[in-house]
Specification:
Elements: E1 2-7, E2 10-13, E3 18-26, E4 28-39, E5 46-51, E6 55-57, E7 65-70, E8 75-80, E9 89-99, E10 106-109, E11 113-118
Parallel strand pairs: 2-11
Antiparallel strand pairs: 1-3, 3-8, 4-5, 4-9, 5-6, 7-8, 9-10, 9-11
């Protein structure tokens, strides 16, 4: 089994910064795409950013958020600057993983970490 665990969420004032991290562990052979998604109460989950050999960002976070990864640690990060109240959501990490006993990749999700931005 593969497990993804996020950390780094919290309560910050508007304009502040947070750095989220997510580490994958378990029977991992390789990881291709890693990404961050978020979901606010009453709203659907939306893409924030993804990273492979290149990066992809939602328009709403471009210029404010930066995604990066450490392949040796199976870890993906999200540096969040200039936070706004509308960024408040539960942030989820996901990864496309091939396990040590598998032939095909599967998508795994973390448990989520709460980010709350106050006015």
């Amino acid at each position: 089994q593969v497990q993804l665990v996020e950390s780094g969420g919290g309560l910050v004032q508007a304009g502040g910064s947070l750095r989220l991290s997510c580490t994958a562990s378990g029977s991992i052979s390789s990881i291709s795409v890693m990404g961050w998604y978020r979901q606010a109460p009453g709203k659907q989950r939306e893409l924030v950013a993804t990273i492979t050999g290149s990066t992809n960002y939602a328009d709403s976070v471009k210029g404010r958020f930066t995604i990066s990864r450490d392949n040796a640690k199976n870890t993906v990060y999200l540096q969040m600057n200039g936070l706004k109240p509308e960024d408040t959501a539960l942030y989820y990490c996901n990864a496309e993983v091939i396990t040590t006993t598998g032939w095909r990749s599967r998508i795994y999700w973390g448990q989520g970490t709460q980010v709350t931005v106050s006015s």
